[in-house]
Design brief:
Blueprint (H helix, E strand, L loop, with lengths): L1 H22 L2 E2 L5 E4 L2 E4 L9 H7 L10 E2 L2 E2 L4 E2 L2 H14 L14 E4 L4 H7 L6 E3 L11 E11 L4 E9 L7 E10 L8 E2 L1 E4 L9 H20 L1
Parallel strand pairs: 1-5, 9-12
Antiparallel strand pairs: 2-3, 3-13, 4-5, 6-13, 7-11, 8-9, 9-10, 10-11
């Protein structure tokens, strides 16, 4: 009987610990989301220093488990992007820049490069944050600065390697800008320059209730109350 009392007293403490752990994670929202063509994308830099294996433990087969947490963010409702998803995202910028046909990425891992492109600067101007910024030799001259957004995609290339997708906006005097979905890296590696690509359908805007409909609803409530009074 004494043991039962001890367990009963301990339970609220355990429940509090579990509750405190669950609220330590925060949802991805606001400035940490970029919306492209009706799809919400999480900033890739939220997931730096995670290996492919660590992400896969929370988002197997792409869909993240309910209440799963990565780098302190709640992943419920988010999907780890596939190579096809990444091709579609990057093609949105290539098409806007006027590219067509074989210049577009897909259907599997692919890449496109062009010196002094308009699509690479447009990608970062859209609000995407880089996972790496290389100021080059002359740090006071922005023409020497290159920025990169690299992240794991939810594709296993083989038993030891996972897929990497990325955008490079190279400096004016450096290499060609590039978009690629055919990168690969050992699954167990984690680096501060590599994040992860996650998306979900954009949250629908709230639709205001028309005034007429609202008044009609109030009328029905009043009618019901009157009928109960008569009864």
């Amino acid at each position: 009987m004494g043991m039962v009392r001890k367990l009963t007293k301990a339970m609220p403490t355990l429940a509090f610990i579990a509750w405190a752990g669950s609220v330590s994670a925060v949802p991805i929202s606001g400035a940490d989301i970029v919306t492209v063509d009706g799809t919400d994308w999480a900033q890739v830099d939220l997931f730096i220093n995670l290996s492919w294996d660590e992400i896969n433990a929370v988002c197997p087969s792409g869909v993240c488990v309910d209440s799963g947490v990565l780098n302190g963010y709640t992943m419920t409702g988010w999907i780890w992007a596939s190579i096809d998803n990444m091709n579609a995202l990057f093609n949105d910028y290539l098409i806007t820049a006027g590219l067509t046909g074989f210049d577009l990425l897909g259907p599997s891992g692919d890449s496109y490069a062009d010196a002094g492109s308009s699509w690479a600067p447009a990608f970062f101007a859209d609000g995407w944050r880089p996972t790496l910024s290389d100021p080059g030799l002359v740090v006071t001259d922005p023409r020497w600065t290159s920025v990169f957004a690299n992240g794991w995609a939810g594709v296993s290339i083989n038993a030891s390697e996972g897929s990497i997708a990325g955008v490079a906006d190279h400096c004016q005097f450096c290499a060609s800008d590039s978009m690629t979905t055919n990168g690969r890296l050992t699954k167990s590696i984690s680096e501060s320059s590599i994040g992860g690509w996650f998306y979900k359908s954009a949250s629908p805007a709230e639709v205001p209730v028309p005034t007429t409909l609202a008044l009609f609803g109030l009328g029905l409530v009043g009618l019901g109350w009157t009928q109960r009074q008569k009864a």
